[in-house]
Amino acid sequence: MDICTKVTLRQRLLKSGKITLYFDYYPPIRNLKTNRMQRHEYLGIYLYANPTNQVQRDFNHSMLEKGELIRCRRQESVINRQFGFIDHSQLKADFLEYFEAVTKKKYQKWRIVFEHFKVFCKGKCTFGDLTVEFCTKFQE
């Protein structure tokens, strides 16, 4: 039986004296962009290690709340992916960008198909636009 991935919000002290927030995935998840297994994801959110006034303490509190909100959404996304639920945010992602990245790793024929597909969809296509009917029209 598959184990559901747990997403934990963690903090790490940097040499600069700031604290960075990151997610710890256990067990690791597959990164959809790189297609590699990933255990950590840094958020780019930094806290004051030693807040000296109320403004810095409020800032830290606010950023921790935002980090927890992002963690909840990431946990939901992981669960949706593991159990086959549709993640509507991924349906809005650019399919042409993804397809072009894949064609760079493939043979010349893939590049030609990509160019034809790009003309067919008039330069705009999201994952949500892809249906059986749409693909059949492209095939014809």
Tell me the distance between the termini: 42 Å
Considering DSSP H and I runs of 4 or more, what fraction of the residues is helical?
40-55%
The coarse silhouette is elongated
- Taken in chain order, the helices and strands follow as EEEHHHHH
Question: Top keywords for this entry?
Answer:
alpha+beta; elongated; 140 residues; 5 helices
Notes on the structure:
The chain is an alpha+beta fold. The protein has helices spanning 54-83, 88-91, 95-103, 108-120, 132-139; strands at 6-13, 18-30, 37-48. A hairpin with a 4-residue loop joins strand 1 and strand 2. Helix 3 (95-103) runs antiparallel to helix 4 (108-120). The protein is elongated and about 65 Å long. The termini are far apart. The mean pLDDT is 87.
Write the layout of secondary structure elements.
Blueprint: E1 6-13, E2 18-30, E3 37-48, H1 54-83, H2 88-91, H3 95-103, H4 108-120, H5 132-139
Antiparallel strand pairs: 1-2, 2-3
